[in-house]
Structures
1.
Amino acid sequence: MGSIRDRVAIVGMACTNFGEHWDKGTDDLLIESSTGAVASAGITLDDVEAYWLGTMGSGVSGLTLSRVLRLENKPVTRLENMCATGSEALRNASYAVASGAYDVAMAIGVEKLKDSGFSGLVSAPLPSDGTLPEVTAPAKFSLLAPAYAAKYGVDEAELKDVLTRIAWKNHYNGARNTRAQFRKEVSKETINAAAKIAGMLGVFDCSGVSDGSAAAIVVRAEDAHRYTDKPLYVKGLSFVAGPARGNIDPAYDFTTFPEVVAAATDAYRQAGVTDPRAELAMAEVHDCFTPTELVLMEDLGFAERGTAWKEVLAGSFDLDGELPVNPDGGLKAFGHPIGASGLRMMFECWLQLRGEAPEERRIASVDAGRTLGLTHNLGGQPGECVSFVSVVGTELS
Amino acid sequence: MTQGLTGYGAYLPHHRLKRSEIAAALGEGGGKGTRAVASFDEDATSMGVEAARIALRGAPTPARVLFATANPPYLDKTNANVIHAALGLDASVLAIDVVGSTRSGIGAVVLATETTTPTLAVVADVRTGLPGGADERDGGDAAAAFVFGGDGPVLADVLAQASATQEFLDRWRLPGAPASRVWEERFGEHAYGPLADAAFAAALKQADLTPADVDVLIVAGTHGRAVKSFAGGAGVAKVADDLTTAIGNTGTAHAGVVLADMLDRAEPGQTIALVVLADGATAIVLRTTDAIATRRSSPSVAQQVEHGDDSLRYTTFLTWRGLLTREPPRRPDPTGPAAPPSLRTEHYKYGFVGSTCTECGTIHLPPVRVCVNCKAIDHMTAAPMADVQGRIVTYTVDRLAYSLSPPVVAAVVDFDGGGRFSCELADVDPATVRIGDRVEMTFRRIVTAGGIHNYFWKARKVEEV
């Protein structure tokens, strides 16, 4: 199987503040991230030869970007892959550059969620036979919690403490991030006491619904130093769409995302990572809901099966833990503008691995010599999802 | 020439409203006992499906379906087709509605006895009334179903049937009106008396019987006073409990429900007379056979009466019936099903038929063409799953999802013998759900959106002994 390792590099990035941007439209967000990204790379929009625009529902076709930036007949591909949309933009831009078709490409993601008038995610349903259950996203992901508790003999009250600690940790990190939607620490008592909205989940167990955009400039690895002294090399990119087996096959037990395991295995192979817990400096994972982050710790190989709940309680994934997870606050505190999230995760790798993260949330693992970061998305629900995993690093191997 | 009874069953919804709840809320009215209440996701059609499923267990497959209700979910469009589809009947089976009046219930049964092909008569009703009124208090919701003719043992022979028809104004409703209107009560008693006497006498004469030969008399009708008056003077020693204290008067369905209850209890060789007072009178005389002892409906009417859940709040009842408009969740309005995909998946959507891979045996819900396990393409056979039970693998209580009766309880169900399905739980107290709970499938009206009723299946808990 092939590999993207060290073929391309990210040489410029930008990310808007995430939040309820009542005063900004999709166009404003796109202008801010795209101009920020080219400035970061020391180039202009004219230097970008092709664009990949990820958005789940804030526009269709490449015109969504070209109209805003008044691009003169440039190739702009608009793509969507649920919550992995932003990462898909980066993946496709990377392949285009690696192929030699373009020298400089931009991956850009955007989502404008707060114009709908509803607090959660809203999308127009496809015409259907009306047989799909009308269950909300938090309810779908809440299915993980009782299944995990039952399988590993964790008392449900104890598991609630685990979930609360994940939310607490991500809020703690987000409080140290000026771009985050939620920039205050939240006490465990407050998190625990929130009214339940689905299963064991309260409002603090859910990611923020926000507007935002992020962008990256991708060039061939050998060209990277023309743009920056500190490029971020792409070590592995993997994306999978699962067979949607879990809601049909009784073998699935709702304590894992097989799609994530598959994507991680492939990305680690490309990157040459054999012990992610020991080798990665940090990970940005798709903590759409707190049980998701718990299960991901095992699916991504950061903890043995059945032990992630103990590792969470022990603080292994805290900002000062052995492997910091979501040091920027994650979807939980940074917010989750769907199309932008994957690139937002990459932006934190960009800051942390290159030593540019603000002092108050800088992770120690980089200074200790670790050079690799991971980003991860999943879209869908337990049982049927798409998943993306990337590994990036500051050193060529 | 009439056909014998070859199958029967009744369906009572899970919920009961204590009549005292009405008085507690309104400060007046109410009364003793309970009334059966169709859940927010039920209507006459969905309850009719449930009754027909019970009636058809062990009965001949019908060649005709008659559906009678005074509360049809659709006009213009045939509601019986939903029942036809849910039962998985062949396209050659005629399905028609006999709707509008409560009299249509007994009419459908009479017609079913007189056809020459096996015929299923389904009778159902959701009785409405304005808050505080007698119809709200005394009404009830239920369905019953009867199969006449076809191969298989006859459970009861139809000895005679006779009717008396006259045009008069007792109870009526203009299309779209939320409740019925009735003329002065004493007038109805005057009008019904002679009609009931005439029909009953004619039926007995046909059967060469006297009132004293009748083992049990069932009298039903929406005019309570006339019903009581006729029952008291008919000369039959034993009059059946009309169940109104426990479930209310279920209108179009009522004679059927009480008949099913009597059949549940009848000994072989018993003579049962049924007299229905509704815009005239109709009498039917049946005699049970030896086969009745071996083919009771399950669950029985008595079991369903006993298992009613009377924790329903009056305000919830009003909400379900559209008489109390509650603040909806801040979510987009639900959308109705689209016609073409619903047609393509008719066997699944209405009949809950999945597919089984003939290469590896994997069961798929919904049915698919490509096996999720062995990837074989188009090696599938039909997997009827509506009557298969399963167990809850995991579940959640969704307090955000749109529902007329939040919260939504959703569960992943693994069926006995294979197959997994995620769906809503019906008639459930969220606090009682546990992993491992046993469930069965039930046909429901999931939602009405965009003027379209969305019928599909939910799971409901099965009491385990």
2.
Amino acid sequence: MTQAGARSWTESREGREVKIPEGLWLSCPACEEMIYRKQMEANAHVCPLCDHHFRIGAQERVRQLSDANTFEPMFENLSTVDPLKFVDLKSYKQRLKAEQQKTGQKEGVQCGRAFVKGRAVMLCCLDLTFFMGTLSSVVGEKITRSIEHATEHDLPLIIVSCSGGARMQESGFSLMQMAKTSAALARHDDAGGLFISVLTDPTTGGVTASFAMLGDVILAEPKALIGFAGPRVIKQTIRQELPAGFQTSEFLLDAGIIDRVVHRQELRNEIARIVDFANK
Amino acid sequence: MAIKYHLEFEKPLVDLEQQIEVLEGSAEAGQSDLTKEIAALRKSHHQMLRKIYNSLTPWDTVRVARHPARPQCRDYIGLICKDFCELKGDRRYGDDPAIVTGFARIGSHKVMLIGHHKGRDTNEKLACHFGCAHPEGYRKALLKMKLAEKFGLPVVTLVDTPGAYPGLGAEQRGQAEAIAVNLREMSRLKVPILSLVIGEGGSGGALGIAVADRVAMLEHAWYSVISPEGCAAILWKVANEQTNLAAAEALALTARRNKRLGIIDQVIKEPVGGAHRDAKATAGSIEKWITANLAELKRLKPAGLPARRYERFRHIGQFRESRPAPVTTDD
């Protein structure tokens, strides 16, 4: 999967000679205007013209949310195995290796302690660039350990979700991570812990149907796709067109399923504010 | 006689079945004593049936699990429960017939019985969305589980769903949230919970009522993160006989493989030729499993159940942990 923002001018105008150095400018997928990449990146990867939120990886997310140099990565010693010896058109091992080479990451989530505007938190950021942020045993384990750590140290827990759902290559193990993480959140809840769930584009499937929907407070970035089933599957099932804006953050806000839609530039402030309201 | 439904791999049996029928017909007409011939044919039929069912591919298993005559939740309720007092509705939106809930007596136990129901005739199937529950179904299930907890009744769930319903209303009413809340709340319910996959165990829709102290599967049921067709369409780019078979194999969705992986605790044997050939016998095995496990779990202190259940799920998942372990927790 390529990031939406990674589509460059040269790629989109295939075959035409373009003099602009690749990647310096890009066309915003929402407003289709040409924007200067550096300006977009300095704007928290949000289109300066139309506020389109570009998809970002976990490293960038961590950088944006935490106070400078305060993020201490944890549970980095866990690595993915291939428990089912899964082979489709390629083997799971091959796919894993390719993802690792592409991203330089070991797995699809970064977890660690951090400070957000001076407030100590436990921060987990799923990484869409790695295997679509899917829920593997390692992702589930790292999130569960993070929840347990937050519970033990009474730290506010922040999980930023973006995921294509389950990691099919781990089948039942992937499915059980939903139960595992949700059970850990029950204990966190019993202990009076605060959990802020932040949903970003896209959050679907097993991730939505487990920890992502269990926040004490659920925030979402604007216009993110958030749902249980994917729009394609729904369309096939009900055999009719989906209404405009279906399964967006705004749709879920109207439906009463999430608490707030928050601009990326405001996320840090909002998290700090909610941590304060919860007396954490 | 009603036309029987045969699965593709059962075709070799059809011939024998017809022969038996013909002989039985003429025996009834009193033409001659064919008892021996019939017995011999029955024996070879049984042997062939056993052979076929002993060598099912995972994709065949999925087809057995979806057999139109396979007993469903309400059938087992009829066969197992001495008394069933159905309770409906989620008190918020409506009643979802895809999930059946109610007080039930099984053996000497009073329980809260919860199960997916697919429906038998066309109308019932449509009403039940073929066993695909909506958020109100999951919320109804949870409401009744809390009721069970209040009165100290164990919860028994029968899982049989292709998956939670993917639709407009389901999304709008919070399908993901409903399932997520069930996972969290079931993990801390202070009464014993037993879950049994009787047919299809499709992903989150199945797990939404299957966070239990003991999880079992009928021999020819399947349980996985996605259906073979769904997996084939995504990873093999196309779902056909060949890719469905490959996906079913890769997903490790059979009862035996799930047991070996530690995802379920027990496989319950089905009669030779599958549950649909002898619903009563299957129900008998299910009842035995339920009563034996309830007797065991009832000996434990209810307050300690969530901790045990937590441990059960906490250790599922495979990964490598390299040393040195990070200095993270104090223990």
3.
Amino acid sequence: MTDKTAPLLEVRDLSVSVSRDGVPSRILRGVSYRIYPGETLAIVGESGSGKTIGALSVVRLLPPGAKIDSGSVLYGGKDLAALTEEELRGVRGAGISMVFQEPMTSLNPVLTIGLQLAEPLMEHKGLSYSQALPACEKLLEKVGITDARTRLAQYPHNFSGGMRQRVMIAMALACGPDLVIADEPTTALDVTVQAQILDLVDSLKKENGMALALITHNLGIVAQRADYVLVFYAGRVMERGPAEAFFKSPSHPYSRALLNSLPKMSDKPGEPLKTIEGLPPSFDEDLPGCTFAPRCPEAFEKCRSAEPPEFKTGERRGSKCWLSGPKI
Amino acid sequence: MPAILNIDNVTRRYRKEGGLFSSGGQLFTAVDGVSLALEKNTTLGIVGESGSGKTTLAKLILGIEKPDSGRVTLEGRELSSLSGAELRKARRGVQMVFQDPYSSLNPRMKVKDIVLEPLRVAGEKMADEEKTAAGLLEKVGLKADAMWRYPHEFSGGQRQRVAIARALATGPGIILADEPISSLDISIQAQIMNLLNELKKELGISYIFISHDLAAVRYLCDFVAVMYRGCVVEYASAAELFRDTRHPYTRLLLSAVPDPDPSKKTVLEERRGGSGGGPAPLACVFSDRCPRAEQACLAARPEYEEINPGHFVRCCRAQT
């Protein structure tokens, strides 16, 4: 992706906090990133790192009690973070749509597939149910579901997990979005089905020219599918960069540790895997230095006293680590 | 080497629910003529997609289900012939670690009671409960004072350690682990895999490792059985299975695993859509999805053949 094209979406210095019993925890701290048209952006990190919030806060799909403290989300000349709930509804499911992890729970079990598929079209395009049906049939065919007309009258329990995820994808595509945010879309599926679904998403992406924000903890999927990678840790983006460069030479010690802890085909079975000792910090913990320093094998004095800013490590690459900064 | 567990031509069928007013449905074969052996101090991986019979096989090994035909022999004793006290005693030899440590530990029990529960159920008298619990926790890398805390005070990885400590309590010869790492974060997965390997070395345990994470299987397992529709379609040492893959289904599985190296593009092996009602009753179980299926595959179920020493395949085209 060249810098000449304007970004489709730009997140600037976004901070989110969640209040529990009146005590706020900062779960996202000054996150910035851009998504360009047609790009697959992978958002990786451990559970609790803020990767899901980091993506879903774009359309303000936040857990109860959470709110955006500061920052902006620029999309189509508007700041989504400043829109009213009413105005945001015009964006969700239309320009930006979502696919969630659990196809078992994110479909309504008592409504037909047709009705659920037609909903975004009725909501955003002002169509009636009968007007929307032909489009629904086409959508199902597009995601590889045969006998679409019969399928539309069926309920989610008639569909297998992979088929349900196809329906979710069809719903996300209904209004021709330019960005789809997919939160662990294949985690609940078998590997062969996972590969089929990801192939499907790739081909639809090419066909429609949409961008994809893929939240995942599977680095294999990132390596195979992503153009650009964001690594989240403790509510911060620790490293960003084009996927190829990231896997070839990760800048941040945390990224290196993550990649090293994967069992590789070249590993000798039985030899201990490299692990990251310790646990990620909780949100309330405010360390004076780098949040990864307590677990970092390369940490030195400065890391424990001052939080590093993001240093540029290459074209569209950055790393929040003192080791990536100018040599002292 | 002597086998600690022998599964000999085991079949388990269930009657499909035919609906509220139906008088009884069709038979569904969950495990279909499976023969496997687990050698002492080795790890056997069982891989396959959901619905392939992995969990039913696990239940048969634990003696929770009885086979319709065939035998499960644990340390020389046939499980289905045992009952009551004898069965309970035999079951102490196989313990279980489940996928999700958030639901497999009772939130209202202290860790001490969780790890000692198998011993209490077995009616074991402990001279010093605290010492026993501390010893178990230490084996899995937790501090002794963890025993006074509740599951919610621990992270996912620590909870899985508690679950492993509980599995070790009765001093089992076999630990059956059903997707023990798939709900954990990457950095924690490596810790748990290392722990499993350390315990294997220290205590001489054998594992049955049920997983769909083929990289983890390759790393942890000595032998691998690939299941499809209740059958073992391929079995070999892990090294051989990944080097000389013979069954088209195993190839399909391997081709579906995304490689964490972007320069190695993985391409899903083309296959025909298997959306229909499955293979014909007499045909090879994989014939409706197999890219290499031919007339012979539809006519008769292929035999489970040893094509190389220790390498078994159920495919009539495996030789080519």
